[in-house]
Structures are given as C-alpha cells and as structure tokens.
Amino acid sequence: MIIGCGRVGSVLASRLDEEGHHVVVLDRNQQAFRRLSEKFSGERVVGNGLVEEFVRPTLEKKTDILFAITDKDNINLMIAQRVKLNFQLGRVIAVVHDSILAGLYKELAVETVCPTDLVIENILKTIQGS
Fold first, then answer.
1. Domain count across the chain
2. How many CB atoms lie within 10 A of CB 124?
3. CB-CB contact of 70 with 55 (8 Å)
4. pLDDT digit string (tens) for 38-59?
5. Deepest in the core among 14, 39, 67, 81, taking most CB within 10 A?
6. Contact predicate 76/98, CB 8 Å
7. Residues 98 and 115 sit within 8 Å (Cβ to Cβ)
C-alpha cells in the first residue's frame, strides 16, 4: 500500500505494478491518480491516510509493506506510527525530508527514508569522484 500519489508515490506504484506486485494507492485527491502509468492495474482509493476506515480494508488483506509518501513529514510519521501500533505489518516506511526528524524516528524504530540525506550523499559522491 502506498499512501500519497505524488511524484515519488506514483512512480513507485507504477514500477511495483510493472514488476507484478498488487499495489493499492491511496490519496486524498482523485486527480493525483493521473500521475500513474497508463498501464497501472492496481487499486486507487480516494481518502485520507490518517483515517483508519480508508487504510484498514487494505491492511486487513495480505499486505506486506506500507509506504507513507505524502508531501508532509508529520503526516507520514503519524501514519507510520498508527499502522505500526494497530496492525501486524511486515514493514512500514515513512518518507521524511527533514534529516533531524528522520533520525529521531529511526531511534523510535520507525523505518524512514530521507530524500534530503540521499541527495546530499549523491552530491558528495559526485564531487569526490571528479
């Protein structure tokens, strides 16, 4: 399940779908689904990822992983924490742009990916390689 169908969420959903995974994408905005590839065969759910009634039906099925990839760090972290507490799910990953927040939540056992840190690492590798 992917919560957030922005630039990252839509590409991730499309790629996982192409690889044969069953993908459910949830976004508050129906128009966000236009970002998905034309071949996307997964499910589209309009709703708020913080509201359990939108998340529960998917998570009660066989769901291996949830990605919280909205454009708001605090929303992603709240979703990740709620899902970890209320559902027995293999993995929950929150995208968090703020490096300090990402580090704090990793210490609290919330798995995070920080695009800011990834960009910095890639820039440093690039300039060190020149």
1. 1
2. 10
3. no
4. 999 999 999 999 998 999 998 9
5. 67
6. no
7. no
Average pLDDT over residues 78-82: 92
Residue 95 parent element (H or E)? strand 91-95
Residue 39 backbone phi and psi in degrees, to 5: -90, 0
pTM of the model: 0.90
CATH number of the structural domain spanning residue 98: 3.40.50.720
Token pair, residue 63, equals 């769901």
CA dihedral 68, 53, 27, 115 (to 10 degrees): -10
Encoding tokens for residue 13? 């959903």
Q: What is the DSSP letter of 39?
A: T
The secondary structure element, H or E, covering residue 10 is: helix 7-18
